Amino acid sequence: MSDTAAGSPEPRRRDPEGRRRAILTAAAEIVIEQGPPALTHRAIATRAGVSLGSTTQYFGSIDELREATLQQLADEIDESLNQLEPLLAGFAASPERAVAEIHEFLRDTRAVHTDVALMSTGTTDPRMRALAQRWTDRLIDMLAEHVGRERATAIAVYLDGATIHAALRDAPLDRDHLERIIVALTAMPDPAGPTTPHV
User: Fold this and answer.
1) pTM of this prediction?
2) Would you tell me which of 87, 103, 109, 165 could form a disulfide with 97, CB atoms 3.0–4.6 Å apart?
3) Could you write out the three-class secondary structure of 139-176?
4) CATH top-level class for 1-60?
5) Average pLDDT of 119-134?
6) Residue 89's pLDDT band (boundaries 50, 70, 90)?
7) Domains of the chain: which residue ranges?
8) With contact defined as beta carbons under 8 Å apart, do 155 and 70 qualify?
């Protein structure tokens, strides 16, 4: 009679990649709800429903686990930019579609708290700074093609502030307000390039 047939438990290490994903998912939920400082092996193991040893089996240290978690969250934020990018054609002349997408992002509590967690980590951990800056830098690059880098930077920095505002108030700025400010920034004089937006 086999060990399994005799009532012995089956080996649990059948899906190591699945368990690793479960640990990262649990860590991401903790970061979004409580911030990166709340990450501990015990908290993650409890949330993931795995043994405490599993977290150290797949990640050598809590720093390694935190970095992997923030990388995963940054990839999620990148996806929001992928959705925004095709809407930027003709942005200077007609920003409404892009503003609508940005407003949807600011209504998404998970996305907003993810972005704020990345920003706050980047201010205290130099190793995470490039990751924290990735969303803003990419948005500037995407917008610069349509409105020039000076205006693109002003819009991106304003949206960083709008993201923090949404996180603190659990609600985004009014969509009409967003559009008015973004249109005004798009039309501002650009000392680094033409004085009128690219059309």
Assistant:
1) 0.80
2) 87
3) HHHHHHHHHCHHHHHHHHHHHHHHHHHHHHHCCCCCHH
4) mainly alpha
5) 90
6) confident
7) 1-60, 70-199
8) no
